[in-house]
């Protein structure tokens, strides 16, 4: 009998068909959500501290110090955090949860080691006028915060929202009570409270992770550093994304006119910072909606889409699943918009009173309003990046982050030049532009999803 | 027997810049032993004045153990190609397909779909609408074309023109593989056909079936572009080789000869119905019966279409015997292009054996062939139990290699042992048939499928009558060709029994062997028939005429 026929074409198993196509257990960006919670803690200390008669100068010094710790630990750990998130997602996809804890501890050692060294060097050299205790506390706080963000991203990726929020609550309760009870020790006392609370929080997170993901035998693993587990684009995106979020604030801090030196080399811009802090707190309901809609509803639809593809559903069924996914995204963005709209209303109602209470001129009221809008847009931006991560469009998230970084810097600069009534508009405009571009990208990618899923595969 | 590794640089394959006849060989000569390969080998040896090129199409290198024949001197060029694509493709950016090209490709597919003869074997799953009702008239129209007018430009067969156009795009690089794999036009076409036709809901299965069946097409196009100039093409099967022949003949406007031993398309269909890899388990929508599975239908239709393209381009379409020829016509070959050229054997090699035969014959009943399920060796072994009980000293010889399906081989040995035939049924392995035949009383063929088995003819030449199952051309060989008075007048060279019927097989063997008179007349008929109708000389003479016409039809090679 002549012929090879189709014995040459034994179909392989389905995973091979699908090549690089796969579903992600979770995407990365959401890890950077909970940091908004830390503003609540800082603001509480601010308010309660004033009530308790702590000098404003001391409160400002404390507030600025911890803001820097938060901002730079987010930026510094952002790269590792995002890449580690992907590593963890891959392991969950492979159904090997026992690999998580050792890799987490490995990443923690890395983040704490590098962060600790960098933080110590900076604290040691940059604050010649401050006490050794202040420098030590700053170095330790920076080190601990790096670990906190890493653990936060893993836990939020694993959807352990409730324990996570619980840990933040306990941690910040500790921060506030210890700081305030040590207020007689001055700046060092406040910082010690901050450090202690976060240290407790980190220990709690580590214990939670080790408890939920036991890994018999292996203590530490660094395989997330291996080439095949490395995602250079993610490292870069983590860095750029966090820089982009802080670019406007830093611009104001380091502007010779808008910022003022607070402690050592640290500067701040009181007029800019407080409204921003307030508006980030105002995004908490938006973040909650984001978690429910994007991380829960969207992920369910996303899984259904990929199960439809893998499970041999009809093309119509696949298109339906995709439409459901798109609908969830729409609904999520719409609800975030609604909630943030409410936030703007509340800001308008209570904004004047808030500013009075905080001792800020009513001149900056419109800055508060626009910041509430901007912070809401930031939640939407987070949502878009998250969906793009699920669709494995790493380059596009990077491009969006880079766009936000560039526009945030440029527009903020323009707004600062245009004058006080334009403050905040730069940040808002940068986010608006990035959100619109992000939506356009998302629209196109989702429209093309079946085509890209099937065609062009190996 | 040589055993040269195909990719061994110390034994380079013969190459030339031109040749007379290019043989298109799918999964056969010179890498695989068997009936078709021997036939090819003898054909090349039989025409020392013709310079042959051979294009071997294999699945993947690991499936072949090297060249199994010592290549004749006039095989001046040998190309080896593998159709199974194992290379990894990185996901790529979408490519831009030419909408016009895709329109032509779609027209070709529509023509395939609506062609009545292609649909003939589809089990009525297609519903020809009014738009293509005229196809029936076309299919049976017999516009007589000379050999020079074949195929190109599309004859009266629908699809010919569209096919030529699409093939032109393929060969001239306007329809690249990446257009098929990555372009939006391709996606639109695949999804449109899926929506229109697939009765199996799984888009994933549909999509990957379409992908994997089309992938070899671009390899074939590459082969067609690169092949050295020859004066005619000759394929030993339809399938991919036949498709290649039809590509080549259309693009280079050279005659294309098709010789079919078995029916490739039908063999594929049987394989498909038995294949377990087609994902239909546990999916109720896929239909209960294996034929109902759309993915299977898709594959079957694909091979039917490949067959059609070969039939549309080839002239003549040669078969071994009438049964095959009729089925070729039923599946789309034009009657006037078909002809039968039976296999022949070397009488000078097997003829002298008849004088070495022991008469009266020894009670040796041999089955010569590979020990594989298609030969139904088990029925033979079961029949041998009765034969051994009834004929004292009877022996059953199994002459042929058992490595091809070692599990079946072991099962056969176990069966013989279980039936108490350990001493009387002997597994002799591969043997020189010429040494075996003079000792054989009756040759047995218990196959469930055969074409034109040479072993029967070799036995006949050595004076050994046969009992064979009624498959392929066996009845024609034993009783004479229907409608041929001279052949029928020769008489029966043995007996014909039903397949898988060990009782009848045993009775026939016993009857033929114990009735001295019948055995003697069967021997006489066997000798007469093979001498007159089944000599290799006769086969070569027929091909000499075919080649002469093909090589003469177009003046100089180009």
| Category by helix and strand content of chain A | mainly alpha
- 3D shape of chain A: globular
What is the first-to-last residue Cα distance of chain A?
Answer: 32 Å
The percent range for helix content of chain B is 40-55%
How many beta-strand runs of chain B? 13
Order of strands across the main sheet of chain B: 3-2-1-4-5-6-7
The mean pLDDT of chain B is 84
Tell me the strand percentage band of chain A: under 5%
> Alpha-carbon distance between the termini of chain B?
35 Å
The averaged pLDDT of chain A comes out at 86
Structural class of chain B: alpha/beta
By DSSP, the count of extended strands of chain A is: 2
Order of helices and strands of chain A: HHHHHHHHEEHHHHHHH
Largest sheet of chain B: 7 strands, parallel
In terms of quaternary structure, the protein is heterodimer
Strand order of the largest sheet of chain A: 1-2
Beta fraction of chain B = 5-15%
Report the sheet with the most strands of chain A, covering strand number, pairing sense and barrel closure: 2 strands, antiparallel
Percent in helix of chain A? over 70%
Uncertain residue segments of chain B: 1-10, 116-158, 280-288
Description:
The complex is a heterodimer of chains A (458) and B (558). Helix content of chain A is 76%, strand content 2%. Chain A has 15 helices and 2 strands. Chain A has a two-stranded antiparallel ribbon with strand order 1-2. Chain B is an alpha/beta fold and 558 residues long. In chain B, strands 3-2-1-4-5-6-7 form a 7-stranded parallel β-sheet, sandwiched between helices. In chain B, helix 15 links the parallel strand 9 and strand 10. In chain B, helix 2 packs antiparallel against helix 5, helix 9 packs across helix 11 and helix 17 crosses helix 21. Classes of the chains: A mainly alpha (458), B alpha/beta (558). At the A-B interface, helix 11 and helix 15 of A face helix 7, helix 8, helix 9 and helix 10 of B.
């Amino acid at each position: 009998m002549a012929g090879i026929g189709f014995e040459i074409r034994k179909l392989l198993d389905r995973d091979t068909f699908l090549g690089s196509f796969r579903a992600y257990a979770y995407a990365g960006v959401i890890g950077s959500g909970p940091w908004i919670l830390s503003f609540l803690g800082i603001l509480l200390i601010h308010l309660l501290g004033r009530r308790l008669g702590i000098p404003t100068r001391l409160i400002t010094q404390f507030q600025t110090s911890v803001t820097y710790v938060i901002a730079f630990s987010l930026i510094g750990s952002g790269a590792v955090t995002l890449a580690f998130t992907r590593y963890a997602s891959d392991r969950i996809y492979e159904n090997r949860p026992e690999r998580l804890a050792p890799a987490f501890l490995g990443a923690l050692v890395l983040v704490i080691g590098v962060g600790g060294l960098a933080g110590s060097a900076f604290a040691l050299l940059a604050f010649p006028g401050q006490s050794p205790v202040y420098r030590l506390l700053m170095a330790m706080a920076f080190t601990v915060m790096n670990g906190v963000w890493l653990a936060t991203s893993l836990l939020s990726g694993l959807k352990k929202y409730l324990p996570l929020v619980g840990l933040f609550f306990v941690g910040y309760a500790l921060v506030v009570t210890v700081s305030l009870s040590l207020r007689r020790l001055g700046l060092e006392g406040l910082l010690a409270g901050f450090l202690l609370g976060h240290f407790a929080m980190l220990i709690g997170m580590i214990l939670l992770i080790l408890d939920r993901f036991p890994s018999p035998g292996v203590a530490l693993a660094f395989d997330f550093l291996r080439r095949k587990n490395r995602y250079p684009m993610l490292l870069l995106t983590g860095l750029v994304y966090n820089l982009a979020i802080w670019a406007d604030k830093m611009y104001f801090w380091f502007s010779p006119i808008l910022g003022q030196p607070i402690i050592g080399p640290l500067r701040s811009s009181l007029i800019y910072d407080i409204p921003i802090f307030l508006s980030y707190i105002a995004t908490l309901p938006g973040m909650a909606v984001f978690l429910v809609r994007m991380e829960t509803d969207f992920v369910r639809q996303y899984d259904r889409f990929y199960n439809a593809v893998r499970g041999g559903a009809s093309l119509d069924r696949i298109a339906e699943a995709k439409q459901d996914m798109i609908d969830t995204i729409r609904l999520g963005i719409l609800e975030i918009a609604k909630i943030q709209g409410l936030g703007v209303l509340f800001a308008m109602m209570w904004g004047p009173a808030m500013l009075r209470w905080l001792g800020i001129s009513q001149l900056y009221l419109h800055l508060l309003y626009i910041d509430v809008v901007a912070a809401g847009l930031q939640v939407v931006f987070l949502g878009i990046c998250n969906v793009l991560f699920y669709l494995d469009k790493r380059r596009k998230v990077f491009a969006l982050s880079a766009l936000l970084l560039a526009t945030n810097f440029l527009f903020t600069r323009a707004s600062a030049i245009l004058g006080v009534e334009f403050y905040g508009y730069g940040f808002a405009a940068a986010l608006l532009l990035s959100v619109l571009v992000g939506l356009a990208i998302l629209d196109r990618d989702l429209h093309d999803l079946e085509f890209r899923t099937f065609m062009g595969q190996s | 027997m040589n055993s040269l590794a195909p990719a061994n640089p110390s034994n380079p394959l013969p190459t030339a810049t031109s040749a007379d006849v290019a043989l298109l060989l799918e999964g056969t000569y010179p890498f695989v032993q068997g009936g078709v390969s021997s036939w090819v080998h003898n054909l090349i040896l039989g025409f020392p004045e013709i310079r042959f090129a051979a294009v071997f199409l294999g699945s993947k290198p690991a499936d072949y153990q090297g060249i199994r024949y010592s290549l004749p001197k006039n095989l001046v060029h040998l190309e080896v190609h593998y159709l199974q694509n194992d290379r990894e493709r990185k996901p790529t950016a979408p490519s831009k397909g030419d909408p016009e090209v895709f329109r032509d490709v779609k027209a070709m597919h529509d023509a395939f779909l609506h062609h009545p003869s292609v649909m003939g074997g589809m089990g009525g799953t297609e519903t020809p609408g009014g738009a293509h009702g005229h196809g029936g008239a076309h299919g049976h129209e017999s516009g007589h074309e000379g050999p020079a007018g074949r195929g190109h430009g599309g004859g009266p067969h629908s699809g010919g023109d569209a096919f030529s156009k699409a093939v032109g795009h393929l060969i001239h690089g306007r329809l690249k593989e990446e257009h098929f794999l990555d372009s939006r036009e391709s996606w639109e076409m695949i999804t449109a056909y899926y929506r229109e036709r697939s009765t199996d809901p799984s888009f994933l299965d549909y999509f990957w079936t379409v992908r994997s069946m089309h992938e070899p097409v671009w390899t074939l196009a590459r082969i067609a572009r690169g092949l050295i100039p020859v004066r005619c093409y000759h394929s030993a099967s339809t399938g991919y080789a036949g498709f290649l022949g039809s590509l080549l003949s259309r693009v280079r406007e050279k005659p294309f000869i098709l010789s079919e031993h078995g029916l490739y398309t039908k063999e594929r269909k049987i394989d498909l119905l038995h294949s377990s890899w087609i994902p239909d388990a546990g999916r109720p929508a896929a239909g209960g019966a294996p034929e109902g599975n759309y993915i299977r239908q898709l594959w079957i239709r694909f091979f039917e279409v490949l067959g059609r393209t070969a039939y549309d381009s080839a002239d003549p379409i040669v078969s071994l015997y009438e049964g095959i020829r009729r089925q070729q016509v039923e599946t789309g070959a034009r009657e006037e292009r078909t002809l039968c050229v039976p296999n022949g054997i070397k009488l000078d090699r097997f003829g002298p054996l008849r004088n070495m035969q022991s008469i009266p014959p020894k009670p040796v009943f041999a089955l010569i062939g590979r020990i594989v399920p298609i030969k139904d060796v088990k029925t033979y072994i079961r029949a041998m139990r009765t034969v051994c009980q009834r004929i004292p000293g009877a022996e059953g010889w199994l002459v042929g290699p058992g490595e091809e399906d070692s599990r079946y081989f072991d099962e056969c040995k176990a069966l013989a042992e279980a039936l108490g035939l350990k001493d009387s049924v002997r597994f002799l392995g591969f043997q020189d048939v010429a040494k075996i035949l003079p000792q054989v009383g009756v040759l047995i063929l218990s196959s469930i499928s055969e074409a034109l088995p040479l072993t029967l003819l070799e036995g006949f030449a050595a004076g050994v009558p046969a009992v064979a199952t009624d498959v392929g051309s066996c009845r024609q060989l034993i009783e004479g060709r229907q409608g041929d008075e001279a052949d029928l007048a020769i008489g029966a060279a043995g007996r014909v029994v039903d397949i898988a019927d060990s009782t009848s097989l045993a009775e026939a063997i016993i009857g033929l062997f114990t009735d001295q008179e019948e055995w003697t007349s069967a021997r006489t008929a066997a000798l007469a028939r093979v001498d007159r109708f089944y000599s290799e000389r006769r086969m070569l003479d027929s091909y000499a005429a075919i080649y002469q016409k093909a090589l003469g039809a177009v003046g100089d090679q180009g």
